[in-house]
Amino acid sequence: MPSLDEHARSQAILAALSASGRVAVNDLAQRLAVSTVTIRKDLEALERRAALRRVRGGAVAAPVLDEGAFETRLLVRRAEKVGIARAVAPLVQDGDVIALDSSTTCHHLAHELLARRSLVVITNSMPTATLFSERSDATVLIPGGSVRRSARSVVGVIGDVLSGRGWIDKGFVGAHAVSAQRGLLDMTPDEAQVKQYLTAHCRQVFALADSSKLGSFSLHSVAPPSRITALYTDSGADPAAVAELRAAGVAVHRVDVPEEHR
């Protein structure tokens, strides 16, 4: 097996953890063709990022205190999220001013936009801000606030930062749940507050949510149906939930995900 770099090993470890809930150092070392010392260092690094919890001989999934660690969520329904991101990307043109929240689907969208020229990107996602700053010519703005380690996002009151500075052309936001009655919802009040401020300053608001989010339960309102320009989801979305959203005035686009990408 070819030697993997640290990032690739981390992704492999998180995938194995997602599948079984527990991983063993010796098994990982054999599977990834590295020493047990290397695996222990990888596990230590992932634990510092709240992606797992180390135990004797290996690691277990981190306790779910909120929506989950960013790296773990990147792997969940990845094919659907990438498909949605690719369908949404043509909405963004060179020179646009856009907002991206800290959702993993928006992070996948960021990867699709690196070739756009002269973007202004407003985001509370640390990984997304880093991606644009290192791999594009975009101007990146991060509103100030406190860092949520597991989500790798910046939260806090950002209304004063955006107020009076004009409109954001297009805002792209994920959601913990989507409701025909209440629109976009999030599980944590801090993330919901940031998304409320972002969407309030956007001319157009595009919701990116895989089919598991439609009709799911969540607590805090982000944007009502009337503020959603369009919702992009995958083809697995429940037809009844889609019909309910459309009846509430939300334009819903279902994206086909090729079988080979699942």
Low-confidence stretches: none
Mean pLDDT: 87
- Tell me the count of domains: 2
From the coordinates shown, what is the CATH architecture of the largest domain? 3-Layer(aba) Sandwich
From the alpha carbons, calculate the radius of gyration and give it in angstroms. Answer: 19 Å
How many beta-strand segments? 15
What name is given to the CATH topology of the largest domain? Answer: Rossmann fold
- What overall geometry do the principal axes of the alpha carbons give? globular
Relative helix content? 25-40%
The main sheet comes to:
7 strands, parallel
Under the CATH scheme, which class of the largest domain?
Answer: Alpha Beta
Largest sheet: spatial strand order: 6-5-4-9-12-14-15
User: Roughly how many Å apart are the termini?
Assistant: 23 Å
- How many DSSP H or I helices? 10
The fraction of residues in strands falls at: 15-25%
Based on secondary structure, the structural category is alpha/beta
SSE sequence, one letter per element: HEHHEEHHEHEHEEEHEEEHEEEHE
Summary?
The protein is built from ten helices and 15 strands. It has 262 residues and is α/β, with parallel strands linked by helices.
Fold and architecture overview:
With 262 residues, the chain is of the alpha/beta class. It folds into two domains: 6-63, Arc Repressor Mutant, subunit A (Orthogonal Bundle); 72-261, Rossmann fold, CATH 3.40.50.1360. It has helices spanning 6-20, 25-32, 36-48, 70-75, 78-88, 104-112, 126-135, 159-162, 189-200, 239-247; strands spanning 22-24, 52-55, 58-61, 97-100, 120-123, 139-141, 146-148, 153-155, 168-173, 177-179, 183-186, 202-208, 220-223, 230-234, 252-255. Strand 5, helix 7 (126-135) and strand 6 form a beta-alpha-beta unit. The chain is globular and about 55 Å long. It starts with 5 loop residues before the first helix and ends in a 7-residue tail after the last strand.
